[in-house]
Amino acid sequence: MLVDEPHLTKPALCNRLAVDEVGLDADLSRLQALGLLREDPVDQRLIVTDPEASVGLLVRDQQRQLDAMLAESVDLAHRVRRNRQANELSSIIEIVTGGEAITSRWEHAQKTARKCIRMTDRPPYYAGAKIEGMNIQLERMAEGFPFHTIYDARIFEHPEHIRRARLAIDSGEVARVLPEVPIKLVLVDDELAFLVLLSSEERREPTVIIVYQSALLDSLTELFRLLWNRGVVMPSGLPSTQHPELSDSQRTLIALMASGLKDEAIAVEMGVGARTVRRKVQELYELLGVRTRFQAGVAANQRGWL
Predict the structure, then answer these.
(1) Is 38 helix (H, G, I), strand (E, B) or coil?
(2) Which residues, given as ranges, of the chain have pLDDT below 50?
(3) How much is the pLDDT for 9?
(4) CA separation (Å) from 200 to 16, 49, 99, 102, 127?
C-alpha cells in the first residue's frame, strides 16, 4: 500500500487499514529498524526506501549473524566432541603404572577369568618373568582352564625363560612360537586386554594399558589371531608316536628349528651342546634328503611332521 500510495501519513494509513496507531506502531517501527521505511520529518509522510538496497543490506546483516552463529556452533561442536571423546576414552582404557599395581591387576585377572587367557611372551620383562610368578597360572591350568601363549623365539636364548616356558607347556599351556613377536599383549575372556608399554629396563616405571570392550579391543584380538595362525606349535616334551620313523629328540629338533631358534638356543632347550645340535641337524638333513633349513622345513611339512 505504501509503495502504491507514497503520500500516506501514519494517521491516513491507520484509516485505510482500519486500525489504531498503537497497533500499527510496532509494525512500522520494525520496518524502520530494518531500513525499509522512513518518516519524512516535514510532512510526516511514510516513505518506502529503495527495496533493492534495503533488502541487500538486510541480507548481508543476516548473513553476518548466520556466519557468527555457524562459527559459534563449530566451536561448540569441537567442545562437545572433545568432552565426549574424553568420556569415551576413559570408559575403554585404563592406564596402570608401577610393577606392584600391574601385578595386582594381572593376578586378579587370572583368578577371575572364565573362558580363556591368550597372551604373547616376549622380552623385555619388568619383573624378570620368574617361575615364582606363575603360581596362579599353574593353579588355573591344573583346574583345566586354558592358557594360549605365543612365545618370541628370542626368549629361548636365556635358560631361565626356557625353564619357565617348558614348565607352562608341560603343565597344559597351548603354545606357539614366532621368530619375533611385535607386542606384549594379554587377552582375558575377550572382555579386556593388557597392553604393556614400558618396562623397568627403559629406566621408567612399567606401564600397562588395560583395554575394555571396544573397537580397539577387537583389533587387538584380531592381531593375536593373525599371530597365532603364523606361529609354530611348541613341542610339549612328551613322547609321541605320531611319527614312528622319528625319535623323540628328532621331533623336538624339527619343532624348534621350525620355530626359528638358533642352534645355541636349541642346545639349551634340549640340554645338549651346540656341536651335538649341529650334528643332529645334519642327520636330519640326510633323513629328509635336503641341504638347508628352509628345505628341511618344507620337506618336514610335506611329510606331516609339522
Answers:
(1) strand
(2) 200, 237-244
(3) 73
(4) 92, 80, 9, 12, 8
pLDDT number for residue 109: 93
The dihedral sign for the CA sequence 154, 157, 163, 169:
positive
What long-range pairs does 102-111 form, CB within 8 A, spacing at least 24? 102/126, 102/206, 102/208, 103/127, 103/133, 105/194, 105/208, 105/210, 106/186, 106/194, 107/136, 109/186, 109/188, 109/192, 109/194, 110/136, 110/137, 110/140, 111/136, 111/140
Residue 254 near residue 305 (C-beta atoms within 8 A): yes
CB 6 within 8 A of CB 48: yes
- Find out whether 103 and 134 touch, Cβ atoms under 8 Å: no
Backbone phi, then psi, for 48, in 5-degree steps? -80, 125
pLDDT of residue 296: 78
Q: Residues 168, 95: contact at Cβ < 8 Å?
A: no
Confirm if 120 and 183 have CB atoms less than 8 A apart.
yes
CB of 119 within 8 A of CB of 147?
yes
**Cα–Cα–Cα angle for 7, 9, 15, nearest 5°?**
110
Give CA separation, 75 vs 71, 81, 168, in Å.
6, 10, 55
Query: Distance (Å, rounded) from C-alpha 126 to C-alpha 224?
Result: 22
pLDDT of residue 44: 66
Question: Would strands 117-121 and 185-188 be described as parallel, antiparallel, or unpaired?
Answer: antiparallel
pLDDT of amino acid 53: 63
User: Which residue, among 254, 234, 233, 232, has the nearest Cα to 243 in the 3D structure?
Assistant: 254
Say what the pTM is.
0.56
- What is residue 239's predicted lDDT score, i.e. its pLDDT? 35
Q: What angle do helix axes 274-288 and 248-258 make, rounded to 10 degrees?
A: 90
Q: Give the pLDDT score at 208.
A: 92
Residues whose CB falls within 8 Å of the CB of residue 287, separated by 6 or more in sequence, listed in order: 250
Instruction: Find cell 491507520 and name the residue.
Output: 14
| CA nearest to 187, candidates 153, 231, 147, 215 | 147
Query: Distance between CA atoms of 227 and 225, rounded to whole angstroms?
Result: 5
